[in-house]
Amino acid sequence: MKYKKVYYRGLNKLLFVIVPFFFLVTGCATAPENNTVLEHARSAVSQAQADPDVAQYAKVEVFEASQALQQAENAKDSETLEHFAYIAEKDAQIAINRAQEKKADAEMEAMSKEKDKIQLEAREYELEKARKEAAREAEEAALKGQEAKEKGQEAAAMAHEAEMARLQTQQEIAQKQQLESELAELKAKQTDRGLVITLGDILFETGKARLLAGTMLSIDKLADALKKYPTRNVLIEGHTDSRGGETYNLNLSEQRADAVRSALTERGIAADRITAKGYGKMYPIASNSHEAGRQQNRRVEIVILDEGESPEKALRKM
Amino acid sequence: MKILKKLPFATVVFVFLLVGCAHKQVMPTEDIPKAEMAIKEAMDRGALTISPVELKMAQEELDNAKAAMQKEEFKKARRLAEKAEVDAKVAESKADAVTEQKHAEEMRSSIETLRQEIERAQQSGK
Description:
Number of helices of chain A: 9
Number of strands of chain A: 5
CATH architecture of chain B: Up-down Bundle
Mean pLDDT of chain B: 85
CATH class of chain B: Mainly Alpha
Largest interface: A-B, 36 and 39 residues
Radius of gyration of chain B: 27 Å
Strand content of chain B: under 5%
Structural class of chain B: mainly alpha
CATH architecture of the domain at 174-314 in chain A: 2-Layer Sandwich
Oligomer: heterodimer
Number of helices of chain B: 5
Low-confidence stretches of chain B: none
Shape of chain A: rod-shaped
Shape of chain B: rod-shaped
Distance between the termini of chain A: 211 Å
Number of strands of chain B: 0
Largest sheet of chain A: 5 strands, mixed
Mean pLDDT of chain A: 83
Helix content of chain B: over 70%
Protein backbone atom coordinates (compact mmCIF):
# COMPACT_ATOMS: atom_id res chain seq x y z
CA MET A 1 0.00 0.00 0.00
CA LYS A 2 2.79 2.23 0.88
CA TYR A 3 4.48 1.37 -2.35
CA LYS A 4 1.28 1.99 -4.14
CA LYS A 5 0.92 5.25 -2.47
CA VAL A 6 4.37 6.29 -3.33
CA TYR A 7 3.87 5.25 -6.94
CA TYR A 8 0.73 7.27 -7.15
CA ARG A 9 2.38 10.29 -5.74
CA GLY A 10 5.22 9.94 -8.20
CA LEU A 11 2.83 9.52 -11.08
CA ASN A 12 0.92 12.47 -9.91
CA LYS A 13 4.01 14.58 -9.86
CA LEU A 14 5.08 13.36 -13.24
CA LEU A 15 1.70 14.19 -14.68
CA PHE A 16 1.96 17.74 -13.50
CA VAL A 17 5.32 18.08 -15.18
CA ILE A 18 4.54 16.26 -18.41
CA VAL A 19 1.23 17.87 -19.20
CA PRO A 20 2.52 21.45 -19.11
CA PHE A 21 5.51 20.39 -21.21
CA PHE A 22 3.17 18.96 -23.75
CA PHE A 23 1.33 22.22 -23.87
CA LEU A 24 4.55 24.07 -24.08
CA VAL A 25 5.80 22.06 -27.01
CA THR A 26 2.64 22.02 -29.06
CA GLY A 27 1.43 25.53 -28.32
CA CYS A 28 4.63 27.42 -28.48
CA ALA A 29 7.28 25.68 -30.47
CA THR A 30 6.26 23.55 -33.36
CA ALA A 31 9.31 23.03 -35.53
CA PRO A 32 9.50 25.38 -38.57
CA GLU A 33 8.39 23.08 -41.29
CA ASN A 34 6.18 25.30 -43.44
CA ASN A 35 8.71 25.57 -46.21
CA THR A 36 6.39 26.76 -48.97
CA VAL A 37 5.56 29.97 -47.10
CA LEU A 38 9.22 30.56 -46.46
CA GLU A 39 10.09 29.82 -50.08
CA HIS A 40 7.55 32.40 -51.21
CA ALA A 41 9.04 35.02 -48.92
CA ARG A 42 12.60 34.21 -50.03
CA SER A 43 11.76 34.49 -53.69
CA ALA A 44 9.85 37.77 -53.16
CA VAL A 45 12.72 39.30 -51.23
CA SER A 46 15.41 38.15 -53.67
CA GLN A 47 13.32 39.45 -56.56
CA ALA A 48 13.15 42.84 -54.89
CA GLN A 49 16.88 42.72 -54.18
CA ALA A 50 17.64 41.92 -57.82
CA ASP A 51 15.60 44.91 -59.05
CA PRO A 52 18.05 47.70 -60.04
CA ASP A 53 15.40 50.35 -59.37
CA VAL A 54 14.94 48.98 -55.86
CA ALA A 55 18.71 49.06 -55.34
CA GLN A 56 18.71 52.68 -56.38
CA TYR A 57 15.52 54.04 -54.85
CA ALA A 58 14.30 51.69 -52.05
CA LYS A 59 17.33 50.56 -50.07
CA VAL A 60 15.63 50.99 -46.68
CA GLU A 61 12.51 49.12 -47.68
CA VAL A 62 14.40 46.20 -49.15
CA PHE A 63 16.57 46.04 -46.02
CA GLU A 64 13.44 45.84 -43.90
CA ALA A 65 12.21 42.99 -46.11
CA SER A 66 15.45 41.10 -45.65
CA GLN A 67 15.31 41.66 -41.87
CA ALA A 68 11.79 40.25 -41.74
CA LEU A 69 12.91 37.29 -43.85
CA GLN A 70 15.77 36.70 -41.43
CA GLN A 71 13.28 36.63 -38.57
CA ALA A 72 11.22 34.11 -40.47
CA GLU A 73 14.31 31.98 -41.10
CA ASN A 74 15.15 32.09 -37.40
CA ALA A 75 11.60 31.45 -36.24
CA LYS A 76 11.21 28.71 -33.70
CA ASP A 77 7.58 28.03 -34.43
CA SER A 78 5.51 27.93 -37.59
CA GLU A 79 3.25 30.74 -36.50
CA THR A 80 6.18 33.12 -36.12
CA LEU A 81 7.63 31.85 -39.36
CA GLU A 82 4.43 32.40 -41.20
CA HIS A 83 4.02 35.83 -39.70
CA PHE A 84 7.46 37.08 -40.62
CA ALA A 85 7.35 35.38 -43.99
CA TYR A 86 4.16 37.32 -44.64
CA ILE A 87 5.74 40.56 -43.47
CA ALA A 88 8.88 39.93 -45.55
CA GLU A 89 6.86 39.29 -48.70
CA LYS A 90 4.81 42.43 -48.19
CA ASP A 91 7.91 44.47 -47.41
CA ALA A 92 9.43 43.27 -50.68
CA GLN A 93 6.28 44.42 -52.47
CA ILE A 94 6.49 47.79 -50.72
CA ALA A 95 10.14 48.11 -51.78
CA ILE A 96 9.23 47.51 -55.42
CA ASN A 97 6.31 49.96 -55.24
CA ARG A 98 8.46 52.64 -53.61
CA ALA A 99 11.17 52.12 -56.23
CA GLN A 100 8.60 52.58 -58.99
CA GLU A 101 7.28 55.73 -57.35
CA LYS A 102 10.73 57.25 -56.88
CA LYS A 103 11.76 56.32 -60.39
CA ALA A 104 8.65 58.02 -61.81
CA ASP A 105 9.42 60.97 -59.56
CA ALA A 106 12.96 61.20 -60.94
CA GLU A 107 11.59 60.98 -64.46
CA MET A 108 9.17 63.77 -63.63
CA GLU A 109 11.98 65.95 -62.47
CA ALA A 110 14.01 65.31 -65.61
CA MET A 111 10.98 65.94 -67.80
CA SER A 112 10.12 69.09 -65.90
CA LYS A 113 13.57 70.43 -66.72
CA GLU A 114 13.12 69.38 -70.31
CA LYS A 115 9.76 71.10 -70.43
CA ASP A 116 11.25 74.28 -69.04
CA LYS A 117 13.95 74.10 -71.66
CA ILE A 118 11.43 73.59 -74.45
CA GLN A 119 9.30 76.44 -73.18
CA LEU A 120 12.36 78.64 -73.00
CA GLU A 121 13.28 77.71 -76.54
CA ALA A 122 9.73 78.43 -77.63
CA ARG A 123 9.82 81.80 -75.94
CA GLU A 124 13.15 82.58 -77.54
CA TYR A 125 11.77 81.56 -80.89
CA GLU A 126 8.77 83.83 -80.37
CA LEU A 127 11.06 86.66 -79.36
CA GLU A 128 13.26 86.12 -82.36
CA LYS A 129 10.19 86.05 -84.57
CA ALA A 130 8.93 89.28 -83.04
CA ARG A 131 12.36 90.84 -83.51
CA LYS A 132 12.43 89.81 -87.16
CA GLU A 133 8.89 91.07 -87.63
CA ALA A 134 9.80 94.40 -86.09
CA ALA A 135 12.93 94.63 -88.22
CA ARG A 136 10.92 93.86 -91.32
CA GLU A 137 8.30 96.43 -90.42
CA ALA A 138 11.00 98.98 -89.76
CA GLU A 139 12.54 98.16 -93.10
CA GLU A 140 9.18 98.54 -94.80
CA ALA A 141 8.60 101.82 -93.03
CA ALA A 142 12.06 102.98 -94.06
CA LEU A 143 11.32 101.94 -97.62
CA LYS A 144 8.04 103.83 -97.56
CA GLY A 145 9.83 106.78 -96.05
CA GLN A 146 12.38 106.58 -98.82
CA GLU A 147 9.63 106.45 -101.42
CA ALA A 148 7.89 109.39 -99.81
CA LYS A 149 11.18 111.23 -99.70
CA GLU A 150 11.79 110.49 -103.36
CA LYS A 151 8.30 111.64 -104.21
CA GLY A 152 8.88 114.71 -102.13
CA GLN A 153 12.12 115.32 -103.94
CA GLU A 154 10.38 114.83 -107.26
CA ALA A 155 7.68 117.26 -106.25
CA ALA A 156 10.29 119.68 -105.03
CA ALA A 157 12.18 119.31 -108.28
CA MET A 158 9.00 119.95 -110.21
CA ALA A 159 8.19 122.92 -108.08
CA HIS A 160 11.71 124.14 -108.58
CA GLU A 161 11.42 123.70 -112.31
CA ALA A 162 8.11 125.52 -112.32
CA GLU A 163 9.63 128.25 -110.25
CA MET A 164 12.59 128.41 -112.58
CA ALA A 165 10.27 128.57 -115.57
CA ARG A 166 8.30 131.28 -113.88
CA LEU A 167 11.47 133.17 -113.07
CA GLN A 168 12.70 132.73 -116.61
CA THR A 169 9.45 134.00 -117.98
CA GLN A 170 9.60 136.87 -115.57
CA GLN A 171 13.16 137.51 -116.61
CA GLU A 172 12.24 137.32 -120.23
CA ILE A 173 9.42 139.74 -119.70
CA ALA A 174 11.70 142.01 -117.72
CA GLN A 175 14.34 141.78 -120.43
CA LYS A 176 11.83 142.58 -123.09
CA GLN A 177 10.53 145.47 -121.08
CA GLN A 178 14.04 146.65 -120.45
CA LEU A 179 14.90 146.34 -124.10
CA GLU A 180 11.82 148.24 -124.94
CA SER A 181 12.63 150.96 -122.49
CA GLU A 182 16.23 151.11 -123.62
CA LEU A 183 15.18 151.30 -127.20
CA ALA A 184 12.53 153.83 -126.35
CA GLU A 185 15.35 156.30 -126.19
CA LEU A 186 15.94 155.43 -129.81
CA LYS A 187 12.26 156.07 -130.44
CA ALA A 188 11.58 152.43 -131.04
CA LYS A 189 8.02 151.47 -131.90
CA GLN A 190 6.42 148.12 -131.21
CA THR A 191 4.91 146.78 -134.43
CA ASP A 192 3.75 143.34 -135.53
CA ARG A 193 7.14 142.84 -137.18
CA GLY A 194 8.97 143.57 -133.94
CA LEU A 195 10.53 146.69 -132.53
CA VAL A 196 11.16 149.19 -135.22
CA ILE A 197 13.70 151.97 -134.81
CA THR A 198 13.81 154.60 -137.45
CA LEU A 199 17.01 156.44 -138.06
CA GLY A 200 16.30 159.66 -140.00
CA ASP A 201 18.36 160.96 -142.91
CA ILE A 202 20.01 163.41 -140.64
CA LEU A 203 22.41 160.59 -139.86
CA PHE A 204 23.63 160.64 -143.42
CA GLU A 205 24.95 163.35 -145.65
CA THR A 206 22.62 163.97 -148.56
CA GLY A 207 23.29 161.41 -151.30
CA LYS A 208 25.91 159.66 -149.18
CA ALA A 209 25.85 156.47 -147.28
CA ARG A 210 28.38 157.48 -144.64
CA LEU A 211 27.10 157.92 -141.15
CA LEU A 212 27.62 161.27 -139.63
CA ALA A 213 29.86 161.39 -136.62
CA GLY A 214 27.11 162.89 -134.43
CA THR A 215 24.81 159.92 -135.01
CA MET A 216 27.24 157.46 -133.54
CA LEU A 217 25.64 157.83 -130.12
CA SER A 218 22.42 156.30 -131.42
CA ILE A 219 24.35 153.47 -133.05
CA ASP A 220 26.24 152.85 -129.79
CA LYS A 221 23.02 152.52 -127.82
CA LEU A 222 21.60 150.19 -130.43
CA ALA A 223 24.74 148.04 -130.35
CA ASP A 224 24.61 147.86 -126.53
CA ALA A 225 20.99 146.77 -126.60
CA LEU A 226 21.69 144.11 -129.21
CA LYS A 227 24.65 142.79 -127.17
CA LYS A 228 22.40 142.32 -124.15
CA TYR A 229 19.92 140.26 -126.17
CA PRO A 230 22.09 138.03 -128.28
CA THR A 231 19.19 135.81 -129.30
CA ARG A 232 17.44 138.51 -131.27
CA ASN A 233 18.14 139.02 -134.91
CA VAL A 234 18.11 142.35 -136.65
CA LEU A 235 16.74 143.50 -139.97
CA ILE A 236 18.10 146.71 -141.40
CA GLU A 237 16.04 148.37 -144.16
CA GLY A 238 17.12 151.33 -146.19
CA HIS A 239 14.44 153.66 -147.66
CA THR A 240 14.62 156.82 -149.83
CA ASP A 241 12.23 159.55 -151.04
CA SER A 242 10.88 159.54 -154.56
CA ARG A 243 13.39 161.89 -156.01
CA GLY A 244 16.01 160.51 -158.34
CA GLY A 245 16.16 157.35 -160.39
CA GLU A 246 14.99 154.02 -159.16
CA THR A 247 18.32 152.25 -159.36
CA TYR A 248 20.06 155.14 -157.69
CA ASN A 249 17.60 155.17 -154.84
CA LEU A 250 17.78 151.40 -154.51
CA ASN A 251 21.56 151.49 -154.39
CA LEU A 252 21.60 154.38 -151.97
CA SER A 253 19.14 152.71 -149.63
CA GLU A 254 21.17 149.52 -149.76
CA GLN A 255 24.40 151.33 -149.07
CA ARG A 256 22.90 153.16 -146.11
CA ALA A 257 21.54 149.94 -144.69
CA ASP A 258 24.96 148.36 -145.15
CA ALA A 259 26.59 151.33 -143.48
CA VAL A 260 24.46 150.80 -140.36
CA ARG A 261 25.18 147.11 -140.49
CA SER A 262 28.93 147.68 -140.65
CA ALA A 263 28.71 150.17 -137.81
CA LEU A 264 27.00 147.51 -135.73
CA THR A 265 29.42 144.73 -136.64
CA GLU A 266 32.26 147.09 -135.82
CA ARG A 267 30.73 147.34 -132.37
CA GLY A 268 30.84 143.57 -131.87
CA ILE A 269 27.45 142.41 -133.14
CA ALA A 270 27.71 139.14 -135.05
CA ALA A 271 27.25 139.70 -138.79
CA ASP A 272 24.98 136.69 -139.15
CA ARG A 273 22.44 138.27 -136.84
CA ILE A 274 22.06 141.22 -139.17
CA THR A 275 20.30 141.24 -142.48
CA ALA A 276 20.55 144.50 -144.49
CA LYS A 277 18.28 145.33 -147.39
CA GLY A 278 17.62 148.40 -149.55
CA TYR A 279 14.10 149.13 -150.75
CA GLY A 280 14.58 152.47 -152.48
CA LYS A 281 11.42 154.56 -152.67
CA MET A 282 9.04 151.61 -152.49
CA TYR A 283 7.84 152.06 -148.93
CA PRO A 284 7.25 155.72 -148.16
CA ILE A 285 5.82 156.60 -144.76
CA ALA A 286 4.81 160.13 -145.74
CA SER A 287 3.94 162.19 -148.85
CA ASN A 288 6.82 162.96 -151.16
CA SER A 289 5.03 166.11 -152.39
CA HIS A 290 6.69 168.29 -149.76
CA GLU A 291 10.07 168.43 -148.10
CA ALA A 292 8.88 167.44 -144.60
CA GLY A 293 7.28 164.28 -146.01
CA ARG A 294 10.34 163.49 -148.14
CA GLN A 295 12.58 163.88 -145.13
CA GLN A 296 10.51 161.33 -143.24
CA ASN A 297 10.73 158.95 -146.15
CA ARG A 298 14.55 159.15 -146.25
CA ARG A 299 15.29 156.77 -143.46
CA VAL A 300 16.83 153.53 -142.25
CA GLU A 301 14.54 151.31 -140.28
CA ILE A 302 16.05 148.84 -137.85
CA VAL A 303 13.68 146.01 -136.98
CA ILE A 304 14.59 144.09 -133.86
CA LEU A 305 12.88 140.80 -134.46
CA ASP A 306 11.15 138.85 -131.73
CA GLU A 307 12.99 136.10 -129.92
CA GLY A 308 14.23 133.40 -132.31
CA GLU A 309 12.58 134.84 -135.44
CA SER A 310 14.54 134.71 -138.68
CA PRO A 311 14.98 137.86 -140.80
CA GLU A 312 13.83 136.15 -144.02
CA LYS A 313 10.27 135.95 -142.78
CA ALA A 314 10.23 139.58 -141.81
CA LEU A 315 11.55 140.86 -145.12
CA ARG A 316 9.32 143.09 -147.10
CA LYS A 317 8.37 142.24 -150.63
CA MET A 318 10.42 143.87 -153.37
CA MET B 1 -7.39 16.31 -0.47
CA LYS B 2 -3.91 15.43 -1.35
CA ILE B 3 -4.35 16.95 -4.72
CA LEU B 4 -5.06 20.24 -3.10
CA LYS B 5 -1.69 20.05 -1.52
CA LYS B 6 -0.17 19.86 -4.98
CA LEU B 7 -2.01 22.95 -6.20
CA PRO B 8 0.77 25.45 -5.50
CA PHE B 9 3.14 23.37 -7.57
CA ALA B 10 0.71 23.28 -10.46
CA THR B 11 0.21 26.99 -10.26
CA VAL B 12 3.91 27.58 -10.42
CA VAL B 13 4.17 25.36 -13.48
CA PHE B 14 1.31 27.21 -15.20
CA VAL B 15 2.89 30.51 -14.49
CA PHE B 16 6.08 29.25 -16.08
CA LEU B 17 4.07 28.06 -18.99
CA LEU B 18 2.53 31.43 -19.49
CA VAL B 19 5.76 33.30 -19.10
CA GLY B 20 7.86 30.92 -21.17
CA CYS B 21 5.50 30.65 -24.05
CA ALA B 22 4.23 34.18 -24.17
CA HIS B 23 7.11 36.38 -23.25
CA LYS B 24 5.97 38.74 -25.97
CA GLN B 25 2.37 38.57 -25.13
CA VAL B 26 2.00 42.06 -23.79
CA MET B 27 -0.91 44.28 -24.76
CA PRO B 28 -0.40 45.61 -28.30
CA THR B 29 -1.14 49.22 -27.38
CA GLU B 30 0.91 50.68 -30.20
CA ASP B 31 0.33 48.24 -33.00
CA ILE B 32 -3.35 48.86 -33.58
CA PRO B 33 -3.07 52.68 -33.74
CA LYS B 34 -0.07 52.26 -36.05
CA ALA B 35 -2.11 50.07 -38.36
CA GLU B 36 -5.01 52.52 -38.21
CA MET B 37 -2.72 55.35 -39.14
CA ALA B 38 -1.20 53.40 -42.01
CA ILE B 39 -4.68 52.63 -43.36
CA LYS B 40 -5.70 56.27 -43.10
CA GLU B 41 -2.52 57.29 -44.90
CA ALA B 42 -3.20 54.77 -47.66
CA MET B 43 -6.74 56.13 -48.07
CA ASP B 44 -5.39 59.67 -48.25
CA ARG B 45 -3.13 58.62 -51.11
CA GLY B 46 -6.05 57.25 -53.09
CA ALA B 47 -5.77 53.58 -52.19
CA LEU B 48 -9.58 53.29 -52.22
CA THR B 49 -9.57 53.65 -56.00
CA ILE B 50 -6.05 52.59 -56.93
CA SER B 51 -5.35 49.64 -54.62
CA PRO B 52 -8.68 48.68 -53.02
CA VAL B 53 -7.82 44.97 -52.69
CA GLU B 54 -4.72 45.61 -50.59
CA LEU B 55 -6.57 48.24 -48.54
CA LYS B 56 -9.45 45.89 -47.84
CA MET B 57 -7.03 43.22 -46.72
CA ALA B 58 -5.46 45.65 -44.28
CA GLN B 59 -8.85 46.71 -42.96
CA GLU B 60 -9.95 43.13 -42.40
CA GLU B 61 -6.73 42.36 -40.58
CA LEU B 62 -7.22 45.42 -38.43
CA ASP B 63 -10.77 44.32 -37.60
CA ASN B 64 -9.48 40.85 -36.70
CA ALA B 65 -6.77 42.40 -34.57
CA LYS B 66 -9.34 44.42 -32.68
CA ALA B 67 -11.48 41.34 -32.24
CA ALA B 68 -8.48 39.46 -30.88
CA MET B 69 -7.88 42.33 -28.47
CA GLN B 70 -11.42 41.97 -27.24
CA LYS B 71 -10.72 38.33 -26.53
CA GLU B 72 -7.44 39.38 -24.92
CA GLU B 73 -5.52 37.30 -27.45
CA PHE B 74 -2.79 39.84 -27.38
CA LYS B 75 -0.21 38.02 -29.39
CA LYS B 76 -2.66 37.30 -32.16
CA ALA B 77 -3.91 40.85 -32.01
CA ARG B 78 -0.39 42.19 -32.27
CA ARG B 79 0.51 40.07 -35.25
CA LEU B 80 -2.74 40.89 -37.04
CA ALA B 81 -2.12 44.56 -36.41
CA GLU B 82 1.38 44.19 -37.86
CA LYS B 83 -0.06 42.50 -40.91
CA ALA B 84 -2.68 45.23 -41.24
CA GLU B 85 0.02 47.87 -41.11
CA VAL B 86 2.22 46.21 -43.69
CA ASP B 87 -0.74 45.63 -46.02
CA ALA B 88 -1.79 49.24 -45.60
CA LYS B 89 1.73 50.23 -46.59
CA VAL B 90 1.52 48.00 -49.64
CA ALA B 91 -1.75 49.72 -50.58
CA GLU B 92 -0.27 53.15 -49.98
CA SER B 93 2.99 52.54 -51.84
CA LYS B 94 1.09 51.08 -54.77
CA ALA B 95 -1.21 54.11 -54.85
CA ASP B 96 1.81 56.41 -54.71
CA ALA B 97 3.61 54.54 -57.48
CA VAL B 98 0.58 54.48 -59.76
CA THR B 99 -0.18 58.16 -59.12
CA GLU B 100 3.38 59.20 -59.78
CA GLN B 101 3.60 57.08 -62.92
CA LYS B 102 0.39 58.68 -64.10
CA HIS B 103 1.80 62.13 -63.49
CA ALA B 104 4.97 61.20 -65.36
CA GLU B 105 2.87 59.96 -68.25
CA GLU B 106 0.88 63.19 -68.29
CA MET B 107 4.08 65.20 -68.25
CA ARG B 108 5.46 63.12 -71.10
CA SER B 109 2.39 63.71 -73.23
CA SER B 110 2.29 67.41 -72.37
CA ILE B 111 5.90 67.73 -73.52
CA GLU B 112 5.01 65.91 -76.68
CA THR B 113 2.08 68.28 -77.28
CA LEU B 114 4.29 71.27 -76.60
CA ARG B 115 6.88 69.99 -79.08
CA GLN B 116 4.26 69.52 -81.75
CA GLU B 117 2.85 72.98 -81.14
CA ILE B 118 6.28 74.55 -81.46
CA GLU B 119 7.00 72.59 -84.61
CA ARG B 120 3.71 73.72 -86.12
CA ALA B 121 4.34 77.32 -85.09
CA GLN B 122 7.81 77.25 -86.62
CA GLN B 123 6.54 75.74 -89.86
CA SER B 124 3.75 78.22 -90.20
CA GLY B 125 6.07 80.98 -89.10
CA LYS B 126 8.47 80.36 -91.99
